Amino acid sequence: MAECDLKLLGMWASPFVIRVRMMLEEKGLSYEYIEQDVFNKSELLLKHNPTYQKVPVLIHGDRDICESLVILEYIDENWFGIGPPVLPATPYERAIARFWAAYIEDKLLLSFIGILRAATEEVKAEKIAETHTILEMLEGAFKKCSAGKGFFGGDSIGYLDVTLGSYLTWIKAAERISGAKLLDETKMPLLVEWEKRFLAADCAKKTLPSVDQLEKHARNLQVTRWKVASAN
Amino acid sequence: MAGSGNSEVKLLGAWASPYVARARIALNLKEVQYEFLEEQFGTKSELLLKSNPIYKKIPVLIHDDKPICESLIIVQYIDEVWVSSGPALMPADAYDRALHRFWAVYIDDKFVPALFGMMRAPTEEAKAESKEQALASLQLLEEAFGKISKGKPFFGGDTIGYLDVALGAFVGWMKAFEEMNGFKLLDDAKTPLLCAWAENFCNNEVVGAVIPETAKLVELAKVMQARFKSAPPAN
């Protein structure tokens, strides 16, 4: 592992944190991971991300880098040539990757959290349909970006793989809790294949929480913060 | 003429859109010849619907028939493609680039919604809240400018950079809101650095050609406000 003065402030369940850890793992960069209590923010977090007071924060020497997608680009540029690239090689492919990452950020989280927060069966069904639509769009994105290869990044795991991949356990937890299939092989077969490939990678195995752990966490959030009855 | 041989560049946009202005300023700074296709207010052309089926929004840059969407993504694309024309928009150092990107995200996340929130606010209370958020954002951007510019006129240093374009494209609308609401967003007392920056930015030739006249934006804002008041609530 490459030695560098790196610390990451994170939270075990956060997909924003997980994607940064995945990329650091892929690049073989070692770092000190410091778990944060996001409901009782530490001095460290307030000091290194005063603007948003959120995780992840990458602390590289005396530099603070915040916002997961900004961190991924920083990792790409600062450690270019070490391990696989984060972003694709050409400006057009990069624009496409950035577009889909922004799309995922804009739509996906709200959608499947919406399933978990739904107060009625009607709203739940709506949110499930919404999530399917989004994943179907991403099926198309995968076809285009992978160009027949195994990952959004082509031969290796990259920016878009970790951006979406960091949500996989949450999606599984939402499937368990709602009883609905979200990543459905009949609707998005390429993504389902990609999911299997991605979950087999070291970076996924080392950073994603277990579905059991996350399901428990999600059910707890349903009851304590979202005030929704947790389904059986 | 900059660009690779006979590459064809089109920009779908509208004169008043600050997001479109970002793309136009970047193209102009990089001396790219392009065809500006103006969308009519209230309608969406076939080309727009085809080029940006997901969001159906402007700007869309079409380079050799390939569409690129989202203003900040377009600006980075322009910087990366026309790399040997005009100064670089993104700084050279990875950390400086991270700072430019971080604050551009902040602008879209916090500042712009507050700015337009003042126009769209359904109640006086909501309007006051938006105003407060807009002023607070500018205060943070003032501090950021101090650190990032390192005493030079722009976020990009001696020349206009990515973050200058990201924020500067909104200066026209900021002036319009100042006029309509009778208070200063950029204030010599509170945000002196940004005041000087805004003047330097607008004095740049290629920028001056893109930022619309304040009076025209005020007129448009009044039309839009009337529509918001009579229209059903948006999604």
TrEMBL record, chain A:
Belongs to the GST superfamily. Residues 90-218 form the GST C-terminal domain. It comes from the Eukaryota. SUPFAM superfamilies: GST C-terminal domain-like, Thioredoxin-like. Keywords: Transferase. It catalyses: RX + glutathione = an S-substituted glutathione + a halide anion + H(+). It holds the Pfam family GST_C. It comes from Rhynchospora pubera. GO terms for biological process: glutathione metabolic process. CDD domains: GST_C_Tau, GST_N_Tau. It is an enzyme of class 2 (transferase). This is glutathione transferase.
TrEMBL record, chain B:
Gene3D superfamilies: 1.20.1050.10, Glutaredoxin (3.40.30.10). The keyword Transferase applies. Its EC number is 2.5.1.18. It catalyses: RX + glutathione = an S-substituted glutathione + a halide anion + H(+). GO terms for cellular component: cytoplasm. Keywords: Transferase. GO terms for biological process: glutathione metabolic process; toxin catabolic process. Residues 7-86 form the GST N-terminal domain. It holds the Pfam family GST_N. GO terms for molecular function: glutathione transferase activity. It comes from the Eukaryota. Residues 93-224 form the GST C-terminal domain. InterPro entries: Glutathione-S-Trfase_C-like, Glutathione-S-Trfase_C_sf, Glutathione_S-Trfase, Glutathione_S-Trfase_N, GST_C, GST_C_Tau, Omega/Tau-like, Thioredoxin-like_sf. Belongs to the GST superfamily. Tau family. This is glutathione transferase. It comes from Rhynchospora pubera.
